[in-house]
Amino acid sequence: MTATEDLSIISLVMHASLLVKLVMALLVGVSFMSWYWIFRKSFAIRAARLSSDKFELEFWSGGDLNALFQSAANDRHNAGGMERIFEAGYREFTKLRARPNMDTATVVDGARRAMRATYQRELDELESHTAFLASTGSVSPYIGLFGTVWGIMNAFRGLSNVGQATLAQVAPGIAEALVATAIGLFAAIPAVVAYNRFAHDIDRISIRWESFMEEFSNILQRQTR
């Protein structure tokens, strides 16, 4: 085996100690999981944004609210977050308004509470598994560093029986230990970037939903007069 082959990435991984191999395997698994959720969250956030755009266009086009409610109720499973918020608020509004002796404030507050509960469920669903990306970004470098430290310890321990240590003897052990840090960074960097981006996008979507709830509450209040 040549010196170049000894220092290839695959060769370094294959010749690493058992604990370092376990650390690398853990980091590779975490990296695959983080990429899986990066793609899943990307599609989910994009779908939430597009569905909100579509529903707002229909809502502010001046159409009948009853027809819009029936459309949302009939296709509830395929509806977006904003559409489900509207459907929950309008359902509660019509239910409370049908009761006798219900004042305007009680009816609108009931609709607002129904929208708030649905809003929270939709937001929780949108934020699900983003904490995994945050944990991956913060923990992976330290797991990789642990593997590196352990590998370097083994490399120097192996030199204790050697009369005169040379760079050629030390380099492979240190190089295979540093691979663990590299894999840790490879897992952490995309997770951190994706988490920050998703947090920003989800925050903007939540602001849109909250603004819609306030505007819709004002419309319902005018309808009860």
Automatic annotation (TrEMBL):
Main location: membrane
Topology in the lipid bilayer: Multi-pass membrane protein
Keyword DNA repair: no
Residue ranges annotated for the MotA/TolQ/ExbB proton channel domain, each copy included: 82-210
InterPro entries tied to this protein: ExbB/TolQ_transport, MotA_ExbB_proton_chnl, Tol-Pal_TolQ
Keywords recorded for this protein, A-Z: Cell cycle, Cell division, Cell inner membrane, Cell membrane, Membrane, Transmembrane, Transmembrane helix
One example of a Gene Ontology biological process annotation: protein import
Transmembrane segments: 12-39, 131-153, 173-195
One Pfam family hit: MotA_ExbB
Compartment list: Cell inner membrane; Cell membrane
Recorded GO CC terms: plasma membrane
Family, as annotated: Belongs to the ExbB/TolQ family.
SUBUNIT field: The Tol-Pal system is composed of five core proteins: the inner membrane proteins TolA, TolQ and TolR, the periplasmic protein TolB and the outer membrane protein Pal. They form a network linking the inner and outer membranes and the peptidoglycan layer.
Function of the molecule: Part of the Tol-Pal system, which plays a role in outer membrane invagination during cell division and is important for maintaining outer membrane integrity.
Listed HAMAP family: TolQ (MF_02202)
PANTHER family given in the database record: PROTEIN TOLQ, TOL-PAL SYSTEM PROTEIN TOLQ
Official protein name in the record: Tol-Pal system protein TolQ
Organism name: Methyloversatilis universalis (strain ATCC BAA-1314 / DSM 25237 / JCM 13912 / CCUG 52030 / FAM5)
Gene (UniProt): tolQ
